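Human: Note C-alpha cell order:
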Amino acid sequence: GGQQDKMVLGDEYEGATDQVKEQLEALGNIGTKLSDNAKALLTEAIVFEEGILPPKRVDLRKLRTVVTIKKERSDKGKAFIFYLFFMAVYTNMVILQRNPYNSQTMQFGVQKYFKEATYVDPYSFEVKKFDDTTTVDDLWHWMQAILVESVIVDTYPNGQPTNKSDDGLILMHNKLTSGFRLTQRRVANDSCILREEFSNFAPNCFGRVYWDARLGPTDTLPFLSADASERYIYEDSKIGASDIPYLDSGYFQIFQRGKQWSRERMANLRRQMWINEGTAWIRADFVTYNPNVRLFGYYQFVFDLRPSGQILPEFRSETMAAAMYETFVDFMRMALEIVTLVCWCWLTFSTIKNIRTVGRKSKNRFAYFREFDNKVCVTQILLFFACFCWWVAIVQNPIRDQLVVTETSISFKDGSQPNFTTLAIFVHDYFVASAVNLVLALFRILSMMQVNPSISQLSDTFSRCRKNIVQFGLVLVLMIIAFLLMAHLMFGAKMRQFSTFDTGFISTVQVMLGAGTYTDLSLVDPIAAPVFYYPFVFIMIFVVFNMTIAIIMDGYALSQEERKTTRKSHLRELNEIKFYHQLFWGFIRMMSPFAGLMPRALRFRTMADGTQVDRFTEPSGAEVVALLEPVEKIEERFLTIAEYKEACDQANMPVRETQLEQIAERHHCWEDFEEPVYRKERLEMRRIQDAEKMERTITLLQERVATIVATQQQMGAKVDAILRSFVVGSMQFPEAQMI
C-alpha cells in the first residue's frame, strides 16, 4: 500500500518493486531445477500478481501479413483512384462526343415522321406504312407517296410556297442538304444450282447475297431499262472531286431538281422496271443539317429483297458533328481528350512495367496474363488504342473539307450529293467500341474493389465461382444450341425468329427469359409446340436457372465463410476498416507534398499512449517492407523491440526504437494487443475471472476429495473384514499362527 519505486529489471519489466525483484532473483537461482515452461509460468504469475507491465513484443507473423496486405491494398487503392479519375474523364469525353440527347431527339423525330406516315394502297385501299412493305408495288407506292412528298418540302404548313432559303425544311429545323438518292445492288443470274429438267420452267436462278449485297454472287454489270432507252451503270462512290474511294457502291439515282421533277423521275423508274428480279437490295438515303444542335443527320431506308420473295424494310440513322472544334464545349471536350490520352499512355506504361516485373520474378514472360484481371486490363488498353484510331479517322475524314455550302444546298465540290455512308459506319463502330470499353471498365472496377472487404462482396463472390460459372456456361450454351436446333427444325420454316441460326439463338434465349409465349408457338404448329415448350421450360428454367443460382450462392457462402474465419483470426482488424475511412485517409496520404498546409487534426495520428505522431514522417509501406527483411528468416514469432532493432543493426539498416514502436502500434501487431495487461480495468476483470475459475476448481477438488475419502473408507472396511477373516482362520491352523 506504500509508494513503490520503479526500476528496470533485466531490460524486460518496468515498474518492478524490490519485493518482486527478490522473487525474480530467487526464481533465477532455482532456474536449473525447473523446466523452461514452469519457469515461464512462475514468472508470469509473479508479474501478473503485482500488475507490472510485461515486455512489449512484436508479433512478426501478423506484422508480415498485415504489412503485405496493406501494401497491396495501398497499391490497389492508388490504382483504383487513378482509374476512377481516368474513367470519369473518359466517360464525360465520350458523352460529349456522342451528344446523345440531341442525337436521339433528332433521329427519333425524323424516324417517326417517315415510318409512321401512311398511304392508301390504290389496289386494295388498305392504309399502309413503311413497315408494311411486302411487295415491290408497296415499295414503289411508299417511295412515291411518302419519300418524294415528305423529303422535298417546298411549301409552308399554310400551303404557301417556301422561300429558297427554306426549301427542304423537314420538321421545321432539319434542312435537306441536297435532295435524296436511291441505291440498288443486284445479284447475278444463274448464281444458284438449277436442275436441268426445271430450266425450261424457271430459267432464272438468283442466289443469296450478304452484308447489304456486298458479299456473294453480286452483279456489277450494266443493265437496261424495260424499253432499252436507259442504261444503268454500277458505280463506286467517291468523296467529291477527290480520288479517295468510299465504301459505297451500286446503281445510283440522284434526286436534286425539285419535287415535280422527282415525281416524274420516280414514275419513270417504275415504268422502266428499275427494280426487277435481279434486285437484291434497295436504299433511299438523304442528309439533313440542324443548325440548332450543329449536327448532320444521315438517314437510310433499306429494303432487303430476299431470293424467297420476302422484303424486309429497315430504318437506319446516324448523326455526326458538323464541325469538331468550334464552341467552348468543343474545346472542353478536346481538353478531356488530351487528358484521356495522357492517362492511357500512363496506364500503358505502368502495365508494360508490371508485365516485365512479373515476368522477371517468375522467369516467364507471360506470367502476368495468368490472372483474369490482367487479361481484361490488356484487352482494354488495346481497345482504347483502337478507339483512338477510330476517332482520328472521324476527325480527319476528308468529307468536311470537300463540302461546299450555298444558300440552297450543301454538296461536294463537284456538285454531287454528300455521301456520309463510310463516316456513319466509323461513327457507329466507334461508339459501339466505346460502350464495350465501358463494360470492361466495370469488370476492372469490380476487381479493384477488393481494396476493401466491405465493398468487395460482389467481386469476391464472382472470383470464388468464376471457374464453375465458365464451365457451366459451356454446358448452358450447348443446351441452348440443342433446343435451338430443335426449334429451327420445328418452327424455322414458319417463324422468322427461328429461320436462321443467329436469330434462332436470340429467340431461344428470349423464350428462356420469358419473352416468348406458348401461344406464339402453338399458332404455328400446335403439335410441335408442347413437344418443344414443356421440356424446354422444365430443363432450362426449373433446372438450369436454379443450378446457376446455386453456383453463385455457393460462391457467396464461401466468401462469407472466409470473412468469418478472418474475423476470428489475428487479421480481424483488416476486415473492419470502413471504405470511406480508408479512401479518405488514403487520399490524405497522397497529399503529402502539401502536408505543411494541413490542419493538425489531419496531419497527426494519436497513438494508444496518447502521444501524437506526424503521419507524413512515419515509415511508408515500402520502408516497412524493407524493415521486415532482417527478420525474414527468424523462426521466432515474437520479438522485443530491442531484439528487432538488433536484427536491423546487424543488417546495416539503422532504425530507432521509436520508429519500430510506431510501426507495431500503427499495424496493431503487439503481442496480445487486444487485451494489454497493463490496463487496470482489464487486469481487474482478469483477476475476477481467475478468482471465479479458482473457486470452481476448489469446489471440484473438494468434491473429488470427498469422493476419494468415501472410497477409501469403503476400501478400509473391506480390508478390515479381510483381516478379521484372516485372524479367525489363523486360530484354526498352527502354520498360520507361526506365520
